[in-house]
Amino acid sequence: MTDETKAGTSRRAFLRGSVALGGAVLGAGAARAAEPDPLITETQGFAQSLGDGVDATPYGLPIEYESDVIRRNVEWLTADTISSINFTPIHALDGTITPQGCAFERHHSGAIDMSKDEYRLMVNGLVGTPLVFTYSDLERFPRENHVYFCECAANTGMEWAGAQLNGAQFTHGMIHNMEYSGVPLRTLLEEAGLPDDLDGKWVYVEGHDASSNGRSIPIEKALDDVLVAFKANGEALRKEHGYPVRLVVPGWEGNMWVKWLRRIEITDGPVESREETSKYTDTLADGTSRKWTWVMDAKSVVTSPSPQAPISHGPGPMVITGLAWSGHGAITRVDVSKDGGKTWETARLAKPGEKMALTRFYLDTVWDGSEMLLQSRAMDETGYVQPTKTQLREVRGENSIYHNNCIQTWHVKENGEAENVEVS
Ligand SMILES: Nc1nc2c(c(=O)[nH]1)N[C@H]1C(S)=C(S)[C@@H](COP(=O)(O)O)O[C@H]1N2
Ligand SMILES: [Mo]
């Protein structure tokens, strides 16, 4: 393993490693390039006709060859598609920013249609002056930009009792990562007038949709980094993500990221709404429930190779890649195991980890063609290490749903195909 660990650390070491492993590694690629390729013809390389004019695509969609990179739902998971979820195709993406068009959606009563003109946001409760803001009012406050992940607490929730869904999209795709532009919630609360004594105060936030998705947030978080956002990745939020305005609650479970944000009330206690009592609480191994698990613990997953992204080449140079994130701050290190957690190699982070945002990792390695039990293990700036499924089950049992941040295993076979499995 040590040779490969070194190979993963720098491009030069990697190339040396490949050469050291001999002709077999470089040979595969070189042999292919040396043979005549039937697809290469005299005319190839120069188009024989003109392309589309600039008026053909006023707003671009991915080219037809990428039509597989789409959100997908799991039909048996929910009774209908109104109160349901679909999943980000994380197995097919790279970098860290999730395009809005394929970023997972989760609604409790469907995605509603609301124009900026119709939009109103009320701030009331224990404030100096209750206020109602229009969309254009919001645009007049100083704005900030931040990249954050949004993970549904139910992400990986089907995997508690055993390996279930065959694909990173389905096991880990209830997550997206966008650059938000918006006004700090603190600014709007200060505009309405904060109570003199903040001790024990909460804010209750709810949406314009029929479910309202009401949640209580401690005032300390509300005044810290919560954003009232109206742009994502530079453009207006999509309808399904809460157009025109949603709440962004960095590092905390997706359910608190209220879409179509309607009302913010300062209260003197938590409301104990449906979404924070009968839902989004954690069943423990002893059968009792734990409430208020707001922060999403450090987690990671190998996105390629994975069941929907099998290895498409023979033995030789190979890139293993995935995503890591933590609601407690920045990711500092990700390790990858090829043997189900017996030995680990430290992966390369594409960029230093950013607080409460996805981090891309790569292990530039050499595949010897044998089967692997691929895992990744994230660490964050608090020193927390992503747990194994066994460790998590000791506390949580097997009947939990939410907050499953266990280490994921893919069984990669000699033919390059991968499957969701568990190792004990
Ligand atoms: N108003 C409203 N806000 C909502 C929801 C909802 O149904 N209605 N779903 C919540 C849940 S459970 C999650 S995980 C996130 C999902 O955000 P997304 O649809 O942008 O992925 O939105 C949250 N905000
Ligand atoms: Mo959620």
Automatic annotation (TrEMBL):
<keyword id="KW-0560">Oxidoreductase</keyword>
<dbReference type="InterPro" id="IPR005066">
    <property type="entry name" value="MoCF_OxRdtse_dimer"/>
</dbReference>
<feature type="domain" description="Oxidoreductase molybdopterin-binding">
    <location>
        <begin position="114"/>
        <end position="272"/>
    </location>
</feature>
<dbReference type="Pfam" id="PF03404">
    <property type="entry name" value="Mo-co_dimer"/>
</dbReference>
<keyword id="KW-0500">Molybdenum</keyword>
<feature type="domain" description="Moybdenum cofactor oxidoreductase dimerisation">
    <location>
        <begin position="290"/>
        <end position="408"/>
    </location>
</feature>
<feature type="signal peptide">
    <location>
        <begin position="1"/>
        <end position="33"/>
    </location>
</feature>
<keyword id="KW-0479">Metal-binding</keyword>
<dbReference type="InterPro" id="IPR006311">
    <property type="entry name" value="TAT_signal"/>
</dbReference>
<dbReference type="InterPro" id="IPR030835">
    <property type="entry name" value="Sulfite_DH_SoxC"/>
</dbReference>
<dbReference type="GO" id="GO:0050310">
    <property type="term" value="F:sulfite dehydrogenase activity"/>
</dbReference>
<dbReference type="Pfam" id="PF00174">
    <property type="entry name" value="Oxidored_molyb"/>
</dbReference>
<dbReference type="InterPro" id="IPR036374">
    <property type="entry name" value="OxRdtase_Mopterin-bd_sf"/>
</dbReference>
<keyword id="KW-0732">Signal</keyword>
<dbReference type="InterPro" id="IPR008335">
    <property type="entry name" value="Mopterin_OxRdtase_euk"/>
</dbReference>
<protein>
    <submittedName>
        <fullName>Sulfite dehydrogenase</fullName>
        <ecNumber>1.8.2.1</ecNumber>
    </submittedName>
</protein>
<dbReference type="InterPro" id="IPR014756">
    <property type="entry name" value="Ig_E-set"/>
</dbReference>
<dbReference type="InterPro" id="IPR000572">
    <property type="entry name" value="OxRdtase_Mopterin-bd_dom"/>
</dbReference>
